[in-house]
Structures are given as C-alpha cells and as structure tokens.
Design a protein that fits this description.
10% strand; mainly alpha; single chain; two-stranded parallel sheet; 2 strands
C-alpha cells in the first residue's frame, strides 16, 4: 500500500520537478550564452546547427562553433509543452 502511494507521488511530482529544473537551467544558460560570441573565418565552410530547449545544447554548440570558427544556426520550433 505504502509503496504504491510512494510511486504514485513520484509519478505526479516528476513532471513538476522537471519543469522547474528546465526553467532554472534556461535562465542560467541564457546569461552564459549572452557572454560568448562566435567569430567566423572567411574561408570556413563549416556550420553548427542546433536545437536547445534549456540552453545546454546551445552552450555546447556555441563552443564547437568557436573551436571550428563555423557559422552557428539555431533551429526554432514551437514549444512542445503547449500542445
């Protein structure tokens, strides 16, 4: 009985906790992304294309683009949570 109740509580709270953590990471990563810039070399034929919801992937894409001196393209998509 108690085990079932504990598992149900976890199942109910998990999406809430994920949403809170995701929002916190997005705010934190937005500040980090604003600090960096990517300089593209004139002869570069490389591009980094990414999609990032909370900013973690965006930070990595930015660092990769800096290292490669590549163009950085962000994919835009509607918020899947609004469906």
């Amino acid at each position: 009985m108690w085990l079932a109740l504990a598992l149900m509580s976890i199942a109910v709270l998990q999406p809430v906790v994920v949403a809170i953590v995701d929002s916190w990471q997005a705010r934190k990563n937005a500040a980090r992304l604003a600090q960096g810039s990517v300089e593209v070399s004139a002869g570069s034929r490389a591009a980094v294309v990414y999609y990032s919801r909370s900013g973690n992937t965006a930070l990595m894409a930015q660092r990769i683009a800096q290292r490669l001196q590549a163009r950085l393209y962000r994919l835009e998509a509607p918020d899947y949570r609004s469906f």
